[in-house]
């Protein structure tokens, strides 16, 4: 079925599931390298098993058919598409002057750590959290400071007192904020963001707000960009991308929003020394097309993700009453505590050998006490989620 998007253009309202094995897919073909076994159902790295919107394929084919792949200058329409998306779906009015490029969110926060800190400076995170945060701090010889989230009956909350105390006692210079939070699935409320940002502003701690999952929001929740919650321009850099929204990781194109002129100058000077002036044409073209014409496709994908979440949660809670699952408010990543069913040291053996699943393990996500957790990627065909549910029930049902 075709549908009209906000620009009046026609877009295909259809999801196509793709068989990705033997296609050089990291998610599917990288299991042997990552987990030591080939024949696992991959539900790990945050990557979708859906074909991109037809508008993206058509835009890339048009460029390919041009047949000339020389130096590329991104069009003003690329930035306009992103600006329009942010205002329409996140109520965030971004100026064109604020936009900067990075090949990915991970390189961006690694670069920003170099720009905003010196060796041994404190950088704070809120575990359990996306493990490249920790790697960026440790690998760049900064001091890792952790303020763990507090687990409640339904999910996680921020320990503000601990957060402020850790900043004071460790002379923290940068906070890497995950919003929405990966892996626990929280979509932070405005007042939660403001309280964190106010603490950072009080101690002049720079905030790198990773908002790459900004569009993957479940019904009943609203993603609030940190930049829209108050006067924080002097300390804030926002990172985002079309990567998760439209499954464009291979295009290596992400966006930094830097409202403060001084911070922009620091970023520009650093990239100038690296001689990085921009990305590849395919990334710019794919992202522009997705933001312009891919909304209907995305909404269908979001419905599949939400349905998969309820499918897996219902089956596990019915069959495994001692399981604990964090409420999914955002991202397509489900955070599950299996520690009541197995010893922590056996989780990899059971998940891989008995269940045949490749998942992200809780121990990867920094902090202690999450060794019995797994993170499950829901962005796949429902049959895969049903299979995973069955395998888990068979392995753990008493």
List the helices and strands and how they pair.
Blueprint: E1 2-4, E2 10-12, H1 26-29, H2 31-35, E3 41-42, H3 54-66, H4 76-90, E4 99-102, H5 105-116, E5 122-125, H6 131-139, E6 143-146, E7 150-151, E8 156-157, H7 160-170, E9 172-178, H8 190-202, E10 206-210, E11 236-241, H9 243-246, E12 254-257, H10 261-274, H11 281-293, H12 295-319, E13 324-325, E14 333-337, H13 347-354, E15 357-358, E16 360-361, E17 373-377, H14 382-396
Parallel strand pairs: 3-15, 5-6, 5-9, 9-10, 10-11
Antiparallel strand pairs: 1-2, 4-12, 7-8, 11-12, 13-14, 14-17, 16-17
Shape label = globular
Q: What is the count of helical runs?
A: 14
What helical percentage do the residues reach? 40-55%
Radius of gyration: 21 Å
Low-confidence spans: 1-12
Q: What is the rounded distance between the termini?
A: 46 Å
Strand order of the largest sheet: 4-12-11-10-9-5-6
Major beta-sheet overview = 7 strands, mixed
Report the average pLDDT across residues: 94
Instruction: Give the percentage of residues in beta strands.
Output: 15-25%
Q: How many DSSP-defined strands?
A: 17
- Strand pairing plus helix content: what structural class? alpha/beta
Note the quaternary state here: single chain
Please tell me about this protein's structure.
With 398 residues, this protein is α/β, with parallel strands linked by helices. The chain is built from 14 helices and 17 strands. The strands form five sheets. The chain has a seven-stranded mixed β-sheet, sandwiched between helices. It has a four-stranded antiparallel β-sheet with strand order 13-14-17-16, covered by helices on one side. The chain has a two-stranded antiparallel ribbon with strand order 1-2. A hairpin with a 7-residue loop joins strand 13 (324-325) and strand 14 (333-337). The radius of gyration is 21 Å and the shape is globular.
């Amino acid at each position: 079925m075709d549908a009209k998007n906000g620009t009046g253009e026609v877009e295909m309202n259809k999801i196509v599931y793709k068989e990705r094995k033997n296609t050089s897919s990291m998610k599917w073909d990288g299991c042997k390298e990552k987990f030591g076994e080939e024949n696992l159902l991959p539900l790990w790295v945050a990557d979708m098993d859906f074909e991109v919107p037809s508008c993206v394929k058509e835009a890339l084919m048009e460029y390919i058919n041009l047949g000339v792949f020389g130096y590329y200058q991104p069009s003003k329409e690329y930035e306009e598409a992103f600006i329009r998306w942010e205002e329409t779906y996140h109520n965030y009015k971004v100026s064109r002057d604020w936009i900067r490029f990075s090949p990915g969110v991970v390189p961006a926060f690694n670069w920003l750590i170099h720009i905003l800190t010196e060796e041994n400076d404190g950088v704070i995170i809120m575990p359990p959290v996306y493990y490249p945060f920790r790697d960026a701090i440790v690998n760049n010889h900064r001091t890792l400071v952790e303020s763990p989230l507090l687990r409640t009956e339904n999910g996680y909350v921020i320990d503000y007192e601990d957060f402020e105390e850790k900043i004071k006692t460790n002379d923290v210079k940068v906070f890497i904020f995950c919003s929405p939070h990966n892996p626990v699935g929280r979509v932070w409320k405005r007042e939660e963001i403001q309280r964190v940002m106010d603490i950072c502003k009080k101690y002049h701690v720079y905030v790198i707000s990773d908002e790459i999952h900004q569009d993957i929001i479940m019904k009943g929740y609203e993603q609030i960009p940190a930049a829209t919650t108050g006067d924080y321009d002097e300390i804030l850099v926002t990172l985002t991308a079309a990567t998760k929204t439209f499954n464009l990781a291979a295009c290596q194109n992400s966006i930094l929003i830097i409202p403060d002129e001084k911070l922009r100058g620091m970023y520009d000077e650093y990239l100038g020394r690296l001689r990085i002036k921009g990305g590849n044409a395919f990334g710019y073209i794919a992202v522009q097309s997705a933001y312009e014409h891919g909304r209907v496709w995305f909404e269908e994908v979001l419905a599949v993700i939400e349905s998969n979440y309820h499918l897996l949660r219902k089956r596990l809670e019915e069959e495994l009453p001692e399981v604990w699952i964090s409420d999914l408010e955002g991202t397509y990543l489900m955070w599950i505590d299996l520690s009541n069913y197995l010893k922590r040291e056996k989780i990899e053996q059971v998940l891989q050998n008995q269940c045949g699943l490749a998942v992200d393990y809780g121990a990867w996500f920094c902090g202690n006490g999450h060794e019995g957790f797994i993170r499950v990627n829901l962005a796949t065909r429902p049959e895969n989620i049903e299979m995973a549910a069955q395998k888990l029930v068979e392995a753990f049902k008493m």
